[in-house]
Known about the structure:
alpha/beta, pyruvate-formate lyase- activating enzyme, Arc Repressor Mutant, subunit A, eight-stranded mixed β-sheet, three-stranded antiparallel β-sheet
Amino acid sequence: MHVPFCRHRCGYCDFVTAVGRQSEHDEYVDALLRELDERQELLAGSLDTVFVGGGTPTYLESGALGRLLSSLPPAHEVTVEANPETVTPVLAELLGAQGVTRISLGAQTFESDLLAVLERQATPEVVRRAFTTLRGAGFTNVSLDLIYGIPGQRPEQLGADVAAVLELEPEHVSVYELEAKPGTRFTSAHGAELRRQIDRLEEYMELATAGLQAGGYRWYETANFCRTRHGDPRDLRSQHNLAYWLAADYVGLGVGAVSTVGSERWKNMASVTRYVSALRSGTAPARTTEHLSAAVRTWERAMLGLRLDEPLAEAEISSVLEPGGLDLMAARGLLERRDGSILLTRRGRLLGNAVTVELLRDLDDPADCDEPRTAQGTSKQVAGRR
Ligand SMILES: C[S@@+](CC[C@H](N)C(=O)[O-])C[C@H]1O[C@@H](n2cnc3c(N)ncnc32)[C@H](O)[C@@H]1O
Ligand code: SF4
């Protein structure tokens, strides 16, 4: 469920967001709930997960946020994304009282100079205080997001971020490489430094994975880690994102939201005004739809499955494998084959996309599949990155 509103726009962000517009929060929630109603027949009787992301859901006017949360279908895992500067004891209590089970907190970094480069509103103290407030309100499943490759960042600063995370002991950590879109104000302001950071990306990822693993976190997906120590019997992986990575169906609601059900994928248009006015007048919001061939779904299953730390059955994805690719990657020590399954080695996982490109056939080649490729689930789009 996508809530686009933010108090301010951070320089690096390329999500569908709208700054301020508080007078529109209520009507946006009305529209979301109408779309939920409209899509009801697509939803299972009992949902595994609900994810309210953004934008900044916790920036919603509290009445609107309360109304949205109290109308959500029940689910085993209900996650809300929060920005540190919006977290107060009152907000945390509201989230808890409305059945939210998990919070994803956008820390990004604990270094004040880097927060300033990202144009974040929170200082490191505010990030820490938000975390403590959530703990104080009884949240026992909190995820922290970190970003690396920030203009001006030094490896020791990422090391300090990992140390700061380990000190807080969140249940889950996401560590993302900064994506800066060409042609944006952010990219033109930091272009040279962004290019310099590219040379360090591999080092950053090694540093983060090694640090978090040494601190008792399981590196269960390329950019995601869950806590395994303290004898906690829970599976602390993000159940919501895991469903994307395992290529399950999902329904996305709100501006810019993507849904995949069977062989159909559709995306709501990004305009808040048009989304609200369509639903207010009882019509469906404008959507683009594409048909996903079986080959595309298998390709996505392979691409996303290889990001996980669990073996992937070779038979399930054999139709999209590049002939000879498995042998080549195994010979280079990037992949292991065992009992009909494949798993990337540590080195293979660190190289990530470079390995999957070698392993998977290019579906744009008509000889390779029954239909041309219509969708390529990038980690950003279908894995919720994020
Ligand atoms: C949907 S965003 C929004 C969450 C929230 N509004 C915030 O800013 O913390 C979720 C996460 O995506 C990551 N993210 C956003 N933009 C990114 C970018 N350009 N490159 C890498 N990660 C990004 C951040 O770590 C962020 O916490
Ligand atoms: S990074 Fe988060 S807070 Fe900043 S503009 Fe994007 S969605 Fe809003």
